[in-house]
Amino acid sequence: MLNIKSFTFNPFMENTYVLYDESKEAVIIDPGCYEKREKAMLFDFIKMEGLTPVKLLNTHCHIDHVLGNAFVKNTYDIPLWFHEDESQILKAVPAYAPNYGFPQYQESKADHYIREGEWINFGQSRLLSILVPGHSPGHLVFYHEPTLECIGGDTLFQGSIGRTDLPGGDHDTLLDAIKTKLFFLPDEVTVYPGHGPATQIGEEKTNNPFVGKYARF
Question: Start and end of every Metallo-beta-lactamase domain (predicted)?
Answer without folding.
Answer: 13-195
